[in-house]
Amino acid sequence: MIRQSGLAFVATLALIASSLTSAQAETVRARYAVSLIGLHIGEVAAVSSFDSSKYRIDFNARLTGVAAMVADVKMALSSTGSMQGGVIAPATYVTTAANSRETRTVRMALSGGAVKSLLITPPWTDLEGRVPVTDANKRNILDPTSAFIMTVPPGQPLVGPAACNRKIPVFDGYLRFDVTLFYVGSRNVDIGGYSGPVSVCAARYTPIAGHKRDSRSTRFMADNRQIEVWLAPIEHAHVVAPLRVALMTLAGNAVIEAVEFSVDTSDVTAATH
Predict the structure, then answer these.
(1) End-to-end alpha-carbon separation of the chain, Å?
(2) CA–CA dist 38, 65 (Å, integer)
(3) CA trace torsion 127, 170, 103, 29 (10° rounding)
(4) What is the pLDDT of residues 180-200, one digit of tens each?
(5) Which string of DSSP letters, residue by residue, matches 161-173?
(6) Long-range pairs for 233-237 at CB < 8 Å and ≥24 separation?
(7) Where in the chain are the domains?
(8) Predicted structure pTM score
């Protein structure tokens, strides 16, 4: 029956209202500059939003300056998922990479930390000589965008060893690898939108599957001891996010550094059950 009495309608509204509560939502906006051997070669814009249990992260990256004259490369990445009890649980991951010759899209659906479906368009055919990616390699993983958001255990400070010390298992649709972070100290920074302490972490890269067995760049990164990450605190979500990444590459020193970084907090209404 579509119609209901005014009294029943008021009762329904009261029931809905009683199940709602105010929660904190945060939106993080960042703009990163990318440089190689001191030359500005690219920019990354990032927007991340968090409420009491869900997140969404969007990245847009492009080459600029001299690099753009050599190769017109653009990338868009997006992830959604949930955060429960300090655990990141990705649900979707989409990335589109384009240059002057082609555009390729990767779509992943995830549940319980495992890949449920994977579609690469056009299909990836460069499989010869690569370490096979097994079904086991697609479990207990994070997609690359979700991996940028790192939860800190409740009761632990957002700046200090708990911010850094972790192993991050990543699968991007092609490669399965681990990034291990170690706390080495803290420092104060002052950039557009953020002024305060950050955790300084050393990082190590461990290839697992999907890479070419004879890849010089993979061997270089696996042996690389010159990778450093600065993590900025995001208070209400109780997570940390990269403010700066510096690493040695085969082409020289590369730096991805935030030139703008802001956190906006607002009240949202959420259901309690």
Answers:
(1) 26
(2) 13
(3) -170
(4) 999 999 999 999 889 999 999
(5) HHHH-EEEEEE-S
(6) 233/158, 233/159, 233/163, 233/196, 233/197, 233/198, 234/26, 234/28, 234/50, 234/158, 234/263, 235/26, 235/158, 235/263, 235/265, 236/24, 236/26, 236/50, 236/265, 237/26, 237/50, 237/55, 237/83
(7) 24-262
(8) 0.85
